[in-house]
Design goal:
homotrimer; about 350 residues; alpha+beta; 12 strands; 12-stranded antiparallel β-sheet
């Protein structure tokens, strides 16, 4: 029998199946530095230990997406090595900040299965949980992915489609323990806009753009120990191009959103996410946001903004998400729906 | 009103104006590693904690330019986002070594203004100071930059051109507290040449060259949270090329200067600096130095060399700074005048 | 006299000569992160401090090749700056794990010399030892390299060819102090295969491939402070291409070997190594392994596998090392013979 991992195919999954993913990973200050070299991020909390301490966070957390990409990367060899496409995310909560020295592990449970009518593939829904070395939950999320069948003749499983909420309720959000924006230094953070300055329906063009290169997205994707071949190997796709890991676009869009949302310091939740189109080297990526909702939290100084964060290929000053046909507009790459925490 | 930062234009600056720049940044061992992957640096003090301790420096400082680029990067969104060109540096002193765990902030004061006769732009002179989390000054410098006007009709300010010294006096230099080269290990440092081995007027061809790539200079520039669009976005310039951040060339030249100046362990001051020409991917960068002056310091084992560090596109074994017309020779990219500390 | 280092030429070496190499280098958590961004490595011990502690290793060692490349890089300016080719390695032992905070130095002794019949170059054999800040040996190895003569007329030295064993005996291996695989968590490590599951003669195709880029191998090679011009400067070779540092291929092949050898957690020794052909950007690198031998160790839970690790340009599912002419098959880039430690 071969000793290498062929990954799981659609017929290998069953409802209720629990998969403890391999390769626990310790987060370090090195990850913060490499992340900072890959993305133009300037949020004051992950940038400055002194600023983080001033809002109640000591030790110094890394950016939420550092934890997310590491935790997500663990699932790839078991869940999506034979994926056709990563279809969506839901119900992602950042439950506990990740700090250097934390070791993350991820476990997933299969919560849904639906074979496609073509008999060649199916959709697998999993709920994943990342825990630290103290067995505390750090991050949890659901995602669904289209996976090839190994054998077209394999019997289709009973269809189970999990109920996933369209957006987490504000009361579902978990604030970082100790977080308090009472003494928040807006000057140090880079912008004066606070919770009350944002209105539901408001759109923000984040203005800046970054042109992608292959080495950069590979450095990022490896940092997360994501093993999907299409990101690294020009022989893995007919077009000879390397597909950019979707998480690279998420981090890039989040970093670009600093310009206009500098005080949206934390992502508390990802309500939904879709990679609308693939990205490749030489694409220039821009981002815009729309305020979808606003809510108070248990901490009086902390508000929550529900934001749609959209990444586009080339700049779209009209900030159009969908065409008249209801489909994503041509340049849209990412449509991410998040709850972010901001000073009131 | 737009929530994004348009940067300041020439008419937004006024003499005496103080700007506290955003995004404090904590320096980590990760920065040292990323810096070491970007530049061929081998100076023994920043390379080795044990060597640093042997010359009186514990904790282990990062290279002076790590602190400089971080501190400088903070000023970009406020000072030079709408810059035509970065014209020069002066009176830069490294007052206190930066060590991992330090959080740097930068503040600038406008010390000079001069509108250009074309009415489209003007020169802004600022003096900037980087402080650590203990409010101790780490680095201070002046620079001047040509900045676009937003409105050509805006009234010209009174012209104020600050007096900046051509070079700091040796007595102005601040040595790292505790520095003592008495037990300096020349074998470990890589060369035998000490203070007495260098003569004023001597030129040193540093021999080695490095061919630039886009991903590398972008990784560096992001690490410093420098947000100038032209470094990252191929759509930001008519020629579709990414302009290399001038600081990338400074660090590269400094690293290349190891070969011939391995014992010039610290940059104590930058007396003057000019980016004579832009650099782009595929340019091959070389460096040469000229000894401009020599001086004793308060510490008997420590001498100071005033050095002109020149970076060139392609190698110029003749080490020619200027042509007969007094202009920089065609390949010259950088002309940097520094005081460096070296064992006597 | 020139102040720059011209490197040593063949006639500069003499039997018994000891060279203490420059630039001690402190290893940090930053190196672990950068390494993880450059290579698709997922071995559980270097990835997770918690996993490492569970097998008796606390503090958390970095990957053996991190130490090797750093220690090796120190030797380049003195041994191989004027090398024609790096011919081979032997008798390399990893004597003590390298952990963040360790400062490595390297010293070499010339153990063999043989001038080539063409009178233009010769082979230099050195034995090198890397020690940490406590003067404990961390790594030791022999290598031989073909070096140019400065002066063709220089007299040939007496030929001395050292006796180097073809492979270290299992009893020569030094296990990391404290290592105990009794409580080894195969689920966390990523594969179930243990010592008894591997048979001598078995070959494993590691399946995955990575397409090289110039920025990535330069970042790696600089991280090790390796100064050989051909890796960085397109003007240093007639073909205008950057030669990939052989160690980059070693690390890449080792990382790819995770898929099939996930539990071969440590490289305890490199018995032999040859770079069969050069590698360049755009080459896609694959790896396969052959089990050459198996042995018990002093620790009952720890077995040793002797493995041939082969890197190839393009995938060779036939896993052919040599053609009928006895020469390396066309795609073979690296032939590395190692002892690796694996749970029994």
């Amino acid at each position: 029998m071969s000793k290498t991992n062929p990954g799981n195919f659609f017929e290998d999954f069953s409802i209720g199946q629990v998969i403890d993913h391999a390769t626990p990973r310790t987060v370090t200050e090195g990850d913060r530095a490499v992340y900072g070299s890959l993305y133009p991020t300037r949020f004051a909390v992950p940038s400055s230990a002194a600023f983080a301490a001033s809002v109640g966070l000591d030790p110094h957390p890394v950016e939420e997406l550092v934890g997310f990409h590491i935790a997500f990367g663990k699932t790839v060899p078991d869940i999506s090595l034979n994926a056709v496409a990563n279809l969506g995310y839901a119900e992602c909560r950042f439950v506990r900040p990740v700090v250097p020295g934390d070791t993350l592990r991820t476990s997933s449970t299969v919560i849904g299965l639906k074979e496609n009518s073509n008999g060649k593939s199916g959709v697998v829904y999993v709920r994943s949980t990342a825990t630290n070395q103290h067995d505390e939950v750090a991050i949890e999320w659901a995602r669904w992915v289209m996976v090839h069948k190994r054998d077209r003749e394999a019997a289709a499983p009973a269809t189970v489609i999990p109920e996933l909420v369209k957006a987490l309720k504000p009361s579902d959000l978990v604030l970082p323990p100790g977080l308090d924006f009472t003494s928040y230094d807006f000057g140090a953070a880079g912008e004066t806009h606070r919770f009350d300055d944002y209105a539901v329906g408001e759109k923000i063009d984040h203005v800046d753009g970054v042109t992608l290169t292959d080495p950069e997205h590979m450095l990022a994707t490896r940092l997360w120990q994501n093993t999907a071949k299409v990101h690294f190997n020009t022989q893995a796709r007919p077009d000879g191009r390397r597909l950019v890991y979707g998480g690279h676009i998420i981090s890039l869009a989040r970093a670009l959103s600093f310009n206009g949302l500098a005080n949206a310091q934390f992502i508390a939740a990802i309500n939904a996410g879709a990679h609308a189109a693939p990205a490749f080297a030489d694409d220039t990526i821009y981002a815009w946001s729309e305020v979808l909702d606003k809510a108070e939290t248990d901490v009086p100084s902390v508000g929550a903004l529900r934001l749609r964060l959209v990444a586009t290929r080339d700049r779209d000053e009209s900030m159009t998400l969908r065409g008249e046909d209801g489909k994503y507009a041509p340049g849209v790459l990412l449509d991410l729906d998040v709850w972010a925490l901001i000073p009131r």
